[in-house]
Each structure stands twice: as C-alpha cells, then as structure tokens.
Write a structure and sequence with these properties.
By secondary structure, the chain is α+β, with helices and mostly antiparallel strands. It contains 16 helices and 18 strands. The protein has helices at 19-35, 44-56, 92-97, 101-116, 120-128, 132-144, 161-170, 175-191, 198-217, 234-247, 257-264, 328-340, 404-407, 415-419, 437-441, 450-457; strands at residues 69-73, 80-83, 87-91, 268-269, 277-279, 282-285, 290-293, 299-302, 307-311, 314-319, 346-347, 351-355, 358-369, 372-384, 387-396, 411-412, 424-430, 471-477. The strands form 4 sheets. Strands 8, 9, 10, 11, 12, 13, 14 and 15 form an 8-stranded antiparallel sheet that branches. A hairpin with a 3-residue loop joins strand 2 and strand 3. Residues 427-474 form the LysM domain. Keywords: Hydrolase, Metal-binding, Metalloprotease, Protease, Zinc.
Length: 480
Amino acid sequence: MGNTGGGDVVAGQSAPITSQERAEGAKNHPEILQEFGGTYQGSQAAYVTRVGQNIAVQSGLSNSASSFTVSLLNSPVNNAFAIPGGYVYVTRQLMALMNNEAELAGVLGHEIGHVAARHSQKRQSKAQTNTILGVLGTVVGGLLGNAGGIASTVGGLLQNNALQVAQIATLGYSRGQELEADRLGVQYLARAGYDPRALSTMLASLAAQDDLEARVAGRDARSIPEWASTHPDPASRVADAQRIAASTGVTGGRLNEAAFKAAVDGVLYGDDPAQGIVEGQTFQHPDLRFAFSVPQGYGMQNGTQAVTISGPNGQAMFTTAGSYNGNMSDYLTRALKGIAGDTQLQVGQVSRTTVNGLPASYVTARANTQSGAVDITIFAYEFSNTSAFHFATLTKAGDAGVFNSMFQSVRRLSAAQAAAIKPRYIDVVTVRAGDTVASLANRMAYDNFRTERFLVLNRLSANARLNVGDRVKIVVKGNR
C-alpha cells in the first residue's frame, strides 16, 4: 500500500501518544462533545467505553486502557471518529445500526487506526485552508456541475470554535487512508479475539443505510450521504475489508451478539426531542414549540446548534444568531456576518412580511466565487421580543426562490401538538412462532419504508427467514 500520509503502520507498533497530543485532545474533547449533543447518558455508555478501550490498546498507542477516553455521543447521525490524544467517539445512532460487539469494536478500531497512522496531520492542514470563499466555491461548484455533488453544508460555515474542531475531527479521508485504517482495524479485531470479518459486515450495513436514507429523502442514491462524506464509499470497501480479514489467517472469533443486543436494547433512536425531531420532510421542536418543512428531495440533519438542509439546488440551515433585542435589521446583519465573515457581499434591501402570524424579515446578498456567483439569503422570524430564529440559504445566483415553500412553512406548535411528539427507541425482541419479517416490520414506528428499515437495521436480506428465538431490533415510539 502506498504512502497514505502517516506511512504504513503495523498493528501494535505505532508510536505512542505524545504529551502534546494528549494536551490537544484534552482541549478539543469538550468542544466536540458540545457539537455532537454531549455524551449519551444511558447504560450503553459504559459498555461502549469498555469495548472501545479494549480494542484501542491493540493499537500500540498505549498499553493502558485508561489512556483512552471512549464516548458514546447523543447524536442521531451515523458517525464515528477519533482524535489524537486517545479520544474516540461513536454516535448512538451508529451503535443502533450494529448487530454484534465485534462490529462495534471494528468501527472503533478503524477510527483508532486513523490516529495510529497519524492521518489527522493532513486533515488539519486541509481544514486550515478551508476559508469561507473556498467553501462557497466548493458548494457552488457542486450546484453548477453535479446536482447531487454538494460536498459541504451551510452548517459548515458557522463561525464557532466548537464546530471548527468538530469539522477537523470529521473531515473526509483519502481512499488510501481509509484502506490503511480498515487494515489496522481488522488487525486490531484479530488481536483482540474478535471475528476479523466484522468490519466488512458493518461496512455493508452502512452502505445499505446510506442507500435507504437517500430513498427516504427522495434523493439520488448516488448523492453524498452523511457518513460517506467523511468515510468515502463504504460499499466499495466491503470486498477490501473481506480480503483483509482473510489475510489475517484468523477464522471465527468472537461476535458477542447476545451481549451487544442486551446493551443496545432501549437506546434512543433518531432525534432527541430536547434537540427537535425530524419527521419526514418536517422538523418539529417540542420545547421551543415550532415546526417547518423542507421541499421534497431535500434532506435534514439535526445538530446541537442548527438544522442543516441539503438538496439538488441549494443548502440551508435553521438556527439563531443569538440574543435578540427587537431590532430585526441588526439581527439580519449579525446572521449574515456569521455566515459570510469578511467576504465581500452585494447586500440587497431588507424586506418585511408575516408568516403564519410570525413577524418575519429577509435579505439576500450575492458573493462572487471562482465557480460563479452565489446568493446567501437570511430569512428571520420573531418568536417573541427576545427570541428570533432564521434560515440561512445558499444557492446559485438567482435561485433563492427554491426555498420559498420552506420559508413560508415556519409555524408555532400548540401545547397539545408539542406534547404529542415522542422519542423513538430500539426495542430488541425475541422472534416467536408465527413472526415474519412483514409482521415485525409492521411494528416499526414509521409511516413509510417499514420493511426496508427493519431489514437494514438487522442486516437482513429481502428474502430472509427468521428463526424462533432470534433476537432482532425494531424501532418503537414512546417514553421509557
């Protein structure tokens, strides 16, 4: 394998964690937790930490399990990553997609492999050159060229240190770096006594989930999904991971499926109501009591500071510019500066209107990039004398109207509507006589794609037959 930025690393022989890396990791850790919803407070956290520390010591970065801080993040996005200094992260959503402990260990081992190979040095350099104009150019280039090829989100333009740290942690890897991390992750699995094929089965589940998410959102399955934007093309890596597992010479190994199913039972699935919930094309926030809808073909990703929206003709985020004193012009100016920074803009006139009883104001500004002109629109709503929220949208020049239906959809929720919003959870159930894929899928707490969701969640084929006594995952809605 060629030079991948850190040189080839043999499992168990990587350079130990340095004091500088520990200091940087300790500094960045709280900010990453802030950006990704904090640590998950369920009983699953201790289980993930134990598995993660056990696989991490196989890397040679440290022989002490306590050197590694392994966090289960309260995030509805399928993701995992690690940063120098012994800090490893996996989201509860990605954990829910797994079907055994070896898959959890494989994913965490893969991320630790990136750190062991020192891949982050190139990524930090890349992040530091990602100026506002560069990001705008990337986005508009995708808009002008390939409708599904937008690789950056407006949410990535937020100017705050927590998000910048998180971006560095989750910037995309090259294919060579991914392959090296796959190789190391598989070796760590074998050394720890797990089935080394577990990483390949997890990659297969991720590829299936990426495809399903695209179908649910009405996007082209070839567009860039959330996890694949930071870990390119899991589908094409399945065969490579199988080949690497075969090369270890290890056959069999632990899966620990029963222990994993017991641990994942009851984990929160999808959005946390405290951060708002995405239901199809609609976002609802029961605590703040508002909702909005995005156009068909556009997907949403809910974060701690913003809801990001992406689709074929533009990108957007819904967030707040902070304190509001009743002066909407000042608010719009602050929101625009938060997106564009010092970029030269041609700012239009502020317009005022009312949307579903909410006073609203909006302004569009144009920026010129190497790829062409783009329009940034701020559409803000006054919820009270001290509270305002806004959309920031990014489109090709002249196309801001593609979001008009979204702008007009913002509305308040009644107390009854807010109270009716319930979280979803993973429920691990035992297959009984007479149960079928269809009957169990019917219990999934969704209005669409129930069978497809059930199959992907359990890594089952379309013609799968269930055996009495099998333990499978379904998603239910309610309070636990």
